[in-house]
Amino acid sequence: MNKQAIYKGVVDITRSGMAFIVIEGRAQDIKVHSANLHSALDGDEVAVQIIRKSNTSTRTEGKVVKVLKRKNTAFAGTIEMNNGFAFLVTENEMIPDIYISKEDINEAKDGDKAVAEITHWGDDKHNPSGKITAVFDKENFNDTAMKEILVENGFPLTFPDEVIQSADALSAVISSDEIKKRKDFRKIFTITIDPADAKDFDDAISIRKLKNNHYEIGVHIADVSHFVTPEDALDKEAYNRATSVYLADRVLPMLPEKVSNELCSLRPHEDKLTFSVVFEISPDAQIKNTWIGRTAIHSDHRFTYEEVQEIIEAEDGMHAEQILTLNNLSQQLRKRRFVNGAINFSSEEIRFKLDENAFPIGVEIKESKEAHQLIEEMMLLANKAVAEYASKIKINKKPLPFPFRVHDVPDDEKLKLFVAFAAQFGYKFDISSPSGIAHSFNEMLQRVKGRPEQLVLEQLGIRTMSKAVYTTENIGHYGLGFEDYCHFTSPIRRYPDMMVHRIIAECLAGQPRADKILEKKCHHCSDRERKAMEAERSANKYKQVEYMQQFIGDDFDAVISGVARFGFWAETLDAKCEGMVSIQSLQDIDEFVYTDSEYALMGIHTREKFRMGDTVKIKVVAANLDKRQLDYELVNEHLDKKTDPKKNKRSK
C-alpha cells in the first residue's frame, strides 16, 4: 500500500469519539484520531491519507487532508456576545465556535439559543463564520432542546413558503374520471389500525370471503405519488428530508400536514386514492394470487391497536369476525416466516409519559402484541410482493434499477466474537451457512427468555447484525429471510416508498425506465434514515436526563449495557435510563483494562470483572442536560465512601 495514497470516504464518529472513514469498496474502514480530522464532522465526505498501515494488532490509520462535502451547514448553540459581534457555541466539542458578525446576529442576544447557517468554514487556524437564521424561545427548554437535536442532525424545522404553497394548491376532490382509472374497493369492508395518537393513516386493510372459501386481503397504501409530482417543490423537499422524524414529544413530517394528515391520510368514511397489493389467501395462509395496482377505497372504521387487541383477546367486539380472521392469517404467516429463516429479534420499546409541558413523569414499556403483528405481517407481505414483481422486470435484458431494502449477513469478525461470548452461557452456534446462523439465533433467543443473560445476548446479537439499507443491488434481506424486499407501505413518511410507487406505476403501464442516479438516491435515503434514528436516540437521551435530575444522589439497580476502555454504561432496570460509570470512579477497587472478547473491564489485581449484562447498583451523581449525559457511580461492597454529585463543566 502506498503511504501517500488518498481515498475518498465518509466520516463516521462513534459515541466514544473515535472516527472512522468509510470507503466504498474497501473492506476495512480507516481509523482517524480527532487531532487528524481537521474540522471534518460526522457524515462529511472527505479525502483521507494513510499514515499508518494495519498489522495483526492495529487498524489502518489516516488523516483527513480535505473536506470535500459538508453533511450539515446549520448548527444550534448558545450566543456569546463580544463587543458587537458574537460566537455561537455548540455543545459538540468537535465543532469550533462559529463567528457571527454584527450584521448577521439577527436580533439574537447574549445567552440566547439559536441556529447559525455556516457561510464560510474557515480552516485549522480560523473559526468558521455564519449567520443566525433562528432564535429559540429560551423560556421553553423542552422545545428548544428538541429543535436543537433536529438541527444538529440536518433536519429543517419548517417548510419553505413555496412548499407550503404547493401543498395548499392541491385539491382534495377526487373526480369520477380518476376513479375509473382504478380498481374500486369502496364497497369492500376496509379498516385502518394505528397508534391512538396517529394522524397520518397511510395503510388500510380490506377483507372479504370468496366463493371458493379463500379470502381476498387488500393492503391499501396512501397514493402519495398521485399528489406529489417528481421534481416539484414538494418532491424536492420530501427527498431532502427523506423521512419523517419521530421524537419523544413531536413528529417532524417529511411532507406538510395538508398532504400527510389530510389529502393522503386514509381517514374513515372518506373516499381515498390508494396504491394496493391484493392477495387471494387460503385459510391456511397460502398465497394463491397477487394483484398490484392503483385503487380507491372507503375506510369503514378507524381502530387503535389497543381496541384491536381487546377484540383479539375477547374474541368479540366490533367487526370481530374480520379482525379474528386477519389475525389468524397473520399469525400463520408469522410462524412460517420464522421457520423459513427470519430472525425473531424483539426489543422493548420505551416511551416516556409526558406532562402538559412535555416533561417526563414516568416510563411505559410498549409490547408488540398480536394487533401490532397483524399489521406488521400484512405490510411485510405487501413489501415482499412488490419487490418480487420488480425483480422480474428487465430493461434491455438487464435488471430494472429498483430501490430494494436489503440486509446483509452478519460481519464475520463480529459474529465470531459474539459466538464465543454466547458459548460462555452454553449457547452453541452453527456458522457454516447463513441459514444455520439464523436458526442458531432463533434457538438462542427462544432459550434465553427469562434468564439473567437475556438482555446482554439480545443486545449483542442485534449489534452483530448488519444495518439494513436502500440499494439497487439486491442481495436479499437476511433478517427477514426474504430474497426480495422493499419499502412500499409508508410513502407519507419515507421517500424510498414514494420512489417504489413511481417505478411500479411505470412498470404497470408498460413503460419501465432506468434511473441512472437511483443508487445515489438510495444512499441519500439510507443516510437520512440513520440521522433520523440518531435524532430519536438523542431526544430519548435528553428525556432520560431530564427525568433522572430528580434522583441525584439516589441508588438504583441497573444492568451493564455497554463497555469501553474508559468505563461502562449502566441502564436502570425500572426506567431504562442509561448513564456512564467512568473508569476513574472505579480506581478504589482496582486498575481495570478492557477485554474485547468478553465485552468486559477486568481488574488487573483483583480479577474483578464488569461485563455486559451484569447487574450492578449505581448512584446518580450528575445529570447534564446540555450534554444529554448521565453520570453514575458504582455502589457495592468495595465502595464504603460516599459519593458527591459532580458537575460536568463544558469545555469550549
Defining key terms:
alpha+beta, OB fold (Dihydrolipoamide Acetyltransferase, E2P), 5 domains, globular, disordered C terminus
Describe the structure.
This protein is α+β, with helices and mostly antiparallel strands and 652 residues long. It has five domains: 64 residues, OB fold (Dihydrolipoamide Acetyltransferase, E2P); 66 residues, OB fold (Dihydrolipoamide Acetyltransferase, E2P) (Beta Barrel); 254 residues, no CATH class; 90 residues, no CATH class; 83 residues, OB fold (Dihydrolipoamide Acetyltransferase, E2P), CATH 2.40.50.140. 27% of the residues lie in helices and 29% in strands. It has 14 helices and 33 strands. α1 runs antiparallel to α14 and α10 packs antiparallel against α12. The longest helix has 31 residues. It is globular. The C terminus is likely disordered.
- Relative strand content: 25-35%
Q: Quick one: overall form?
A: globular
- Please, how many helices? 14
* Total domains: 5
Q: Give the spatial strand order of the biggest sheet.
A: 11-18-17-14-13-12-19
Q: Quote the average pLDDT.
A: 90
- Integer-rounded radius of gyration: 26 Å
The low-confidence parts are 638-652
Please write out the topology.
Elements: E1 6-13, E2 19-22, E3 30-32, E4 45-52, E5 61-69, E6 74-82, E7 85-89, E8 98-100, E9 113-120, E10 129-135, H1 141-152, H2 161-168, H3 176-180, E11 183-184, E12 190-194, E13 203-209, E14 215-222, H4 224-227, H5 233-241, E15 245-246, E16 251-252, H6 257-263, E17 271-281, E18 287-298, E19 301-304, H7 305-314, H8 320-339, E20 349-354, E21 360-366, H9 370-391, E22 394-395, E23 398-399, E24 404-406, H10 412-423, H11 434-447, H12 454-464, E25 469-471, H13 495-508, H14 518-548, E26 555-564, E27 567-572, E28 578-582, E29 592-595, E30 600-603, E31 609-611, E32 615-624, E33 629-634
Parallel strand pairs: 8-10, 11-18, 12-19, 28-33
Antiparallel strand pairs: 1-2, 1-4, 2-3, 4-5, 6-7, 6-9, 7-8, 9-10, 12-13, 13-14, 14-17, 15-16, 17-18, 20-21, 22-23, 24-25, 26-27, 26-32, 27-28, 29-30, 30-31, 32-33
Helix pairs in contact: 1-14, 8-9, 10-12
